[in-house]
Amino acid sequence: MRCLRLIALLPLVACLGGCNFVVLAPTGDIAAQQRDLLVVSTLLMLLIIIPVMALTAFFAWKYRASNTDAPYEPEWSHSTQMELVIWSAPLLIIICLGALTWMGTHLLDPYRPLDRISADTAVPAEMTPLDVEVVALDWKWLFIYPEQGIATVNDLAAPVGRPIRFRITSSSVMNAFYVPTLAGMIYAMPGMHTELHAIANSPVESRGFSANYSGAGFSGMFFRFRGLPEADFDAWVAQAKQAPDALTRAAYLELEKPSQNVPARQYSAVDPALFDAILNMCVEDGKMCMSEMMAIDAKGGMGIESAAANTLPLTYDKHSRRGTVLGGAPSYVAGVCTPEEASRLLTLSSAARARAPVSDLAPVLGAGLPVPGLSATGLPAAGASALSPISLPASEALPGPRRPSNS
Predict the structure, then answer these.
(1) Is residue 176 part of a domain?
(2) Is 73 a domain residue?
(3) Which of 172, 152, 132, 133 shows the shortest CA–CA distance to 281?
(4) Which domain holds residue 102?
(5) Which stretches of 250-396 are assigned E, i.e. beta strand?
(6) Fewer CB in 10 Å around end: N or C, the chain?
(7) Is the same domain home to 331 and 270?
(8) How far apart are CA 282 and CA 292, in angstroms?
């Protein structure tokens, strides 16, 4: 019977043979340090867990009801020696874990540039990191190589022994960029950019993925990562430069549309300002960039009158504007007044409306600073055609404060 039980366990052993302990077999120095931190933390934890489990079994066996030789002390209440053991051992482990955590938090900070290639090799002063701009799309990964002038989809390569600096963002929802053999996980968020520094110390081909659920195509959101010798990496770049397509803004807007299980793809050229446009959510022509909007706000804003020119909404409504089912309908500023004031305006005579000065109705679009109507100091610029409120005769003036009304 015992032999049959052992045979029944063989399929479980065979299943364990298919496990890939990729986190415990890193090929990059950062991932190796994270592995060491994980192993040391586990061993420190086991210093408490193993003795507790062993003593639990020992006490249950020694003080069993059938063992009449075991001492019986129903009035026992305190032991100084036991108190010292119970409190000192966990305290020492907490101190060790705290020291490891503090060092790991600073030395393995993803924003911290690398100062070593491996444990015994420092980064040469003349070596610059390879810049890779990463964009999490639905449901694929876009990699832009600004130095090489190429871009790839679901295909990441880097030369062995050269530090890599990732700048990471997302086009729509939050994802998590993770290559277990290379470095730790870091989030990709729309309108923000995170950084990750890493290095591949030996040739490797592994898989990266998103570690944060992001919708229907999440299960297929994988990409291939390869650490290549310098010559092979140069050949890979040369191959990408032979690709038939270039990643223009129009091509990116097409690529950005949700799609699943996308095969690897290369682009021979890329718009050099594309990543910053994605980060600032202004890839579309005429869309105001977040950086421009923040610069306007830093100068004090353009005033309530700027809304009168049907400025495109600065909420990020790209899905509804591109014809998908996500998001609400497009909205525009209909007037700088309350609904009651708008109704009152409609009842005015045509002669009164004709006497009102016409404002500059040119759309306020993100065409770069300086902003129309503002000087570098934030004051109205000389000769600027700032939008002005409508003025009416005193007999037909509208009561109450004026504020935007969206429709």
Answers:
(1) yes
(2) no
(3) 172
(4) 18-62+81-108
(5) 265-267, 333-335
(6) N
(7) no
(8) 10
Q: What is the pTM of this model?
A: 0.71
**CB < 8 Å & 24+ apart, contacts of 302-305:** 302/364, 302/371, 302/372, 302/373, 302/374, 302/386, 303/373, 303/386, 303/387, 304/336, 304/389, 304/402, 304/403, 304/404, 305/336, 305/359, 305/386, 305/387, 305/388, 305/389
The number of CA neighbours under 13 Å toward the Cβ of 368 is 1
pLDDT in tens, 3-33: 776 677 677 666 666 667 777 778 888 888 8
Q: Which of 112-116, 239-243, 371-375, 395-399 shows the lowest per-residue confidence on average (mean pLDDT)?
A: 395-399
Are residue 234 and residue 150 in the same domain, yes or no?
yes
Q: Which residues pair with 131 in a beta bridge?
A: 165
Position 263 in a domain: yes
Which one, of 219, 225, 224, lies nearest residue 198 by Cα? 225
Helical ranges in 108-256 per DSSP H: 230-240, 249-255
* Size of the chain in residues: 407
Quick check: is 7 in a domain? no
